[in-house]
Amino acid sequence: MGGTSDIEKGEVDESVPVHLERKGHSQKKKKQRKGMTVEERKRTFNLEISVAESPLPFSCCIFRVPEVLRRQKKEAYTPDIVSIGPFHRGAKKLKLLENVKKWYLKCLFLPQRQGQRSTALSLDSLTERIKVEELDKRARGCYSDPCHHLDQDDFIEMLILDGCFLIELFRKAPSQHEDIRQDNDDPIFNMSCMLEYLYHDLLLLENQLPWFVLQYFYNLIDSGSSKLLREVVIDFFKDSVSDFKIFSTRDPKIEILHILDLIRTSLVHEHEVKNENVQQKQDSGVPITNIKKDLVHLPQRIPSAASLSEAGVEFKNGTSGCILNIKFEKGVFTIPPLAIDERTGPLFRNLMAYEQCYISCKHKITSYAVLMDNLIDTNEDVNLLCEKHIVANWLSADDAAKFFNDLYNDTTVIDFVYKELCENVHKYHEATWNRWREKLKRDYFDTPWATISFFAAFVLLVLTFLQTIYTIQPYYHPR
């Protein structure tokens, strides 16, 4: 076991162990070990084991996307114009927005200029407050990568730049305070494409700041506001989707971890409130082991929308709101509408990556992706759901089908929330009478002319039968 570990320790010092992650340090330690005696190597190894810590402590809620997911579509997890947090800090292509962050901070701390309100804090006093309150230590513990390439001052500088930039961005958005005006030199609001890029970048799993950091700066910068921060953020992202009603700002008591977590919570909260079947089973005395055993495995894949339609299943457009509130009752599939465009894929992929990484996150978005992939196999299924106003597709039918088919590749699903629904769909689909009834309806009652022709043929058949009866009756019953 003489090779380097994933998390290397620095110089052998029992009092101050230093984490080193860079490749150069690992190579240096390899060379040092080659010159060690067996006893020295043992002592060094024992010391490294004694100070080893979990690379993913329980406080982690902001993760690097696992490579097994990233390889599916790398651009869906990578920022285009702005870095938030430590993971992508310093990338050359993000230089423009780094300058904008500094300019935003300068405007914030300057005396009143062009009607903008300045904060009473200075940069030095703000830095000291963060150190005294140990905000940086709490924030560092939220990242799966400990980011030891940033010392305390660098990390605090990042928190101030990114945190203040986000709060000012949300406050300056057109849907926010009417008394706050965008600066004439502001490139974000002077270039129409910038907000679209920001919608993408600010919802990446790797591009997050802890929520308590944002709340800290919001309280300092906009202490007089009557709006909750979660409401301000949701308002900002309403223009990032075609139907803003899918976002909910209810229940302010729910703990938020970061912006992506807020968006996920706003999508699934209504569904979580209405669906507490597992909790009901626990309350009724059913052992938790039985519940897990019952829910871990996915049910058999259900047929596609076109196949179900041929079997008599009716698809109905549900009310706007929580997209997870899908129902199947008496042969009717009720599905809330969903708009699909270029922005939908990255959002869903990052939400699902978050569910895969964070242990306290139920796989609700992933379950939704699995169910929709079941229903959509080809462009025929997409066209059917578009006709029923369930899917508003801004892509081609083939691209929309591929979007759902590839969405949850290499993911796992625990506690699949549509297990019972899928079982009911299978029972309905396997009933022979349902398929016969739908075939009769499709072949003979599809159009008004087909219906008229069917009844005309039926009447003609009855008349022919009666004529035959009256013709042969005298032969068997002569007068």
Automatic annotation (TrEMBL):
Mind telling me which PANTHER family this protein's record contains?
A: BNAC04G53230D PROTEIN, PTHR31170:SF17
* Keyword Transmembrane set for record: yes
What segments bear the compositional bias annotation Basic and acidic residues? Answer: 1-12
- Transmembrane helix as UniProt keyword: yes
Ranges of biased composition (kind: Basic residues): 25-34
Name of the protein this chain belongs to: DUF247 domain protein
Q: Where are the transmembrane segments?
A: 449-472
Q: Give positions of region: Disordered.
A: 1-36
Annotated InterPro entries: DUF247_pln (IPR004158)
- Which species expresses this protein natively? Rosa chinensis
Query: Which keywords does UniProt give here?
Result: Membrane, Transmembrane, Transmembrane helix
Source organism, top-level taxon: Eukaryota
